[in-house]
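Curious: can you check?
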Amino acid sequence: MLAVESYLHNRHIRRIQVRISVTGTRGKTSTARMLAGMLKQAGFRVITKTTGTEACYLMPDGEIVPVKRKPGPNIIEQKKLVRMASAIKADILIAEQMSIHPENHRTETQKLIQPGYTILTNTWPDHLEAAGDDMKNLYLNDIRKGAKIIVPSSEASAELEEDINRKGASIIRVEKGNGPESNFLLAARLAEELGCTKEQIQKGSQEFSMDKGSLSAYKYEVREYPVIFINAFAANDPLSGEIIIKKISGASCFRGFNIYCLLSFRKDRGDRSLQWRDFLIEPGRDLFHHCFFIGEHGRIVRKTLGKGDHIRQSDPEGISSHIIRKCAGPSLVFGLGNIGGTGLRLIDYWNATGHETDLTNLMK
C-alpha cells in the first residue's frame, strides 16, 4: 500500500514543473504570498499553500481556499497540495514549510515537496522545545540535493554554505533589508531567477494578499492625542519583535511617543513565555515605558519582573480600554508574543473600531 502511495505521489510530483519551499523562522507567509504574486504577473499558473495565521491554498485564479484541519496542522497536508497542483496543471507550486520537528522537516522536503528551490528567510530562535537550540541545523533538513537555496547574506555564513554544498545544493545570496523589505528581496531574487521582469516583480509584490499575521496598525484618538495599537503578534520571538519596535518607534513621525508592549502568552508555549521574560529582565532593557501581560503565564512574568500590568480579562474591548486609560500622551502599543486566541480577537476588534494606519514606508 505504501509503495503504491509513493508511486502515485511521485507521479504527481513529476507533473509540476517548478516546486518551491519557503522555510525559516519569520516571514515565510508574506514571502510565499509575494512570490506567488510576482510569478502570476509573469503568466505562470501558480498554486501556493501557506501555514500562517490563516492557513490556506492560494489558487491560480485568485481564489483563497482555507485549509481544513482536525485537530491541528499535519504535514500530510503537503501531499494534498501536490495532488491539487497536479490536478489543476499548475506550472509552479509554492509550499510554506510547516514543521517544527527536525524529522518532519526532512519528510516535508525530501519526500513530499521535493523542491528545486528553497527560500530560507532567517534562522532566528523559536519552537526551542521541539527544535533545540541550533536553528541552522534544523533548517538544513530543508536542503535537498540539486536545489538552489536563496539565503539572506546575513545568514549565509561560510559554515552554512559548506553545509549546503555538502548536501549537493547551491547557494544564492541576497543582500537583506529589514522587516518586510527583506521578504520582498528574497522573493524578488527567486522571481528573477525564474524569468520575471522588474516590472512584473514590482506589480506582483504590490498586489499580493496579506493575512492577519501581517504587520498592521490601528489608531485611536484619546484625549486629543493618538494611541496606536500595532499588530506585531506574528513576531513572536524577542529578536524579530525588537527589530520591528526599533524600526517603527525610531521613525521621525513617532518622535515623543511613549512605547508600550502588550504581551500575549499561551499555556502551550511556555518556551516562548520564558524567552520574553528573559528578554525583558535583561539589565539595561529599556524599550518600553510600560508592559501589559495577557493570557497564561502573564501573572508569573509580571511577578518576576516586579512591574507591568497583568490584565486578567480576555475581552478585546476590555483589554484595549484598560491600556488606553493607562497611556499617558501619544503612544505606540506593540502587540507581541502569540497571535492565536486573544491575539486574533484583538486584531479583529482593532480593525473594526480603530483607524487603520499604513506602516509600509516606515519598514523600508
Q: What stands out?
A: The longest helix spans residues 28-41. Residues 293 and 310 are 5 Å apart (CA to CA). The two ends are 52 Å apart (CA to CA).
